[in-house]
Design goal:
The chain has about 240 residues and is α/β, with parallel strands linked by helices. A 7-stranded mixed β-sheet has the order 3-2-1-4-5-7-6, with helices on both faces. It contains 9 helices and 7 strands, in the order H-H-E-H-E-H-E-E-H-E-H-H-E-H-H-E. Helices cover about 40% and strands about 20% of the residues. Strand 1, helix 3 and strand 2 form a beta-alpha-beta unit. The chain has one domain: Rossmann fold.
């Protein structure tokens, strides 16, 4: 999933399907993210960096979403997006080119901002698109620079975020941060072991499937019901314009 307000996107075509294939195996992961953001996805919603429409397909089922649109500038993904979500409007451009008066109630973006070199400018564009209706930005990004691994570079990631860094960038763009938490503590250690320490550069579909079906649900239940972790593989943010 890639999008940008700037001319520089760390994007490697040969690895696009690699990232999408991993997300395709993560059924519980996708559904959990949808539930986490669902209270804020209401009215007119824009998914930025829609890719081939994997998360779009999940968001379509939310009852409070009146109109869902996607934004994806990469032409390689447009046909697959349309096949998966034929009734969803797709903006085939970047956020900077969208006019102010579209009036979105929410923007959602899953694992996109890390692909954008000028991420501060991108967040400012989101604020501009949400300002009229004081909408919410729902954002999910990779976390913790210490586990940045060769596979991150393969994916086209410029960075992994810390909580203070993301909070500062959101507030600088004009947002009021309402929620900002680390996500997937078990995944942090799995990422460190497999990709930082062992320097693996591929996902095994079976391993992703096992983690998603049996390990992730238990870990997320503990995080949500017992104690939010002090760090994690990702960061989940909700901010109001």
């Amino acid at each position: 999933m890639h999008t940008s307000s700037s001319p520089v996107v760390n994007d490697q075509a040969s690895n696009a399907d690699f990232e999408f294939d991993a997300l395709n195996e993560a059924v519980n992961y996708r559904r959990t993210l949808t539930r986490e953001f669902s209270p804020f996805l209401k009215g007119k919603v824009l998914e930025i960096g829609a890719g081939i429409g994997q998360m779009t397909h999940e968001f379509r089922g939310l009852r409070d979403v009146i109109r869902l649109s996607g934004l994806e500038p990469d032409s390689r993904f447009h046909q697959r997006f349309a096949q998966k979500n034929p009734d969803v409007e797709l903006f085939r451009t970047v956020s900077a080119e969208l006019p102010d008066n579209l009036g979105f109630d929410a923007i959602v973006s899953i694992n996109v901002l890390e692909h954008i070199e000028q991420d501060q400018a991108e967040l400012s564009n989101w604020f501009r698109l949400l300002r009229e209706r004081h909408g919410h930005a729902c954002l999910f990004v990779p976390a913790r620079p210490e586990i940045y691994a060769p596979i991150d570079k393969d994916f086209g990631h410029f960075r992994r975020y810390t909580r203070p860094e993301l909070e500062l960038k959101l507030t600088t763009a004009g947002f009021k941060v309402e929620r900002l938490v680390y996500f997937n503590l078990i995944g942090y250690f799995a990422w460190w072991l497999n990709f930082k320490a062992r320097k693996n550069r591929t996902f095994e579909a079976q391993s992703v499937r096992i983690f998603d079906r049996y390990i992730f649900p238990v870990g997320h239940w503990m995080e949500k019901n017992l104690l939010r972790p002090p760090f994690g593989q990702s960061l989940l943010a909700v901010a109001k314009a």
